[in-house]
Design goal:
The chain is mostly beta strands and 127 residues long. The protein contains no helices and eleven strands. The model has no long low-confidence stretch (mean pLDDT 94).
Length: 127
């Protein structure tokens, strides 16, 4: 069982930066990858970024490439999402996710690839 707890919610202006954190309760050597998804009101939950726990390979959604950076701290069992140059369309609830199973190809970018989810944290970007 993996428990995830996000933090770092905030209300910022367009162009600002914000960093989200997600702590994992499980023994992280058993985690294959952790990711971030977001959901805006009335929209589907979409992939934002993910990182492979061993090796640190990263994956990003097209809308955040070049602006967001996902990273991990193995010693703290924590994954981070550094968000720069924020836009109003980045507004939504951000969810941390984790999987113990390997991900391949398109499964990196899909909700079904991740079994464990945090409770979500709100990010609001005003124009």
């Amino acid at each position: 069982q993996v428990q995830l707890v996000e933090s770092g919610e905030g209300l910022v202006q367009a162009g600002d930066s914000l960093r989200l954190s997600c702590g994992a309760s499980a023994r992280t050597f058993s985690i294959f990858a952790m990711g971030w998804f977001r959901q805006a009101p009335g929209k589907e939950r979409e992939f934002v970024a993910a990182i492979k726990w061993s090796g640190g390979s990263t994956y990003y959604g097209d809308s955040v490439k070049g602006r967001f950076t996902v990273s991990r701290d193995n010693a703290k069992n924590t994954v981070y999402l550094q968000m720069n140059s924020l836009k109003p369309e980045d507004t939504g609830v951000y969810y941390c996710a984790a999987t113990l199973a390997a991900l391949y190809g398109s499964t990196w970018y899909k909700r079904d690839g991740y079994r464990y989810w945090g409770q979500g944290t709100q990010v609001t970007v005003s124009s």
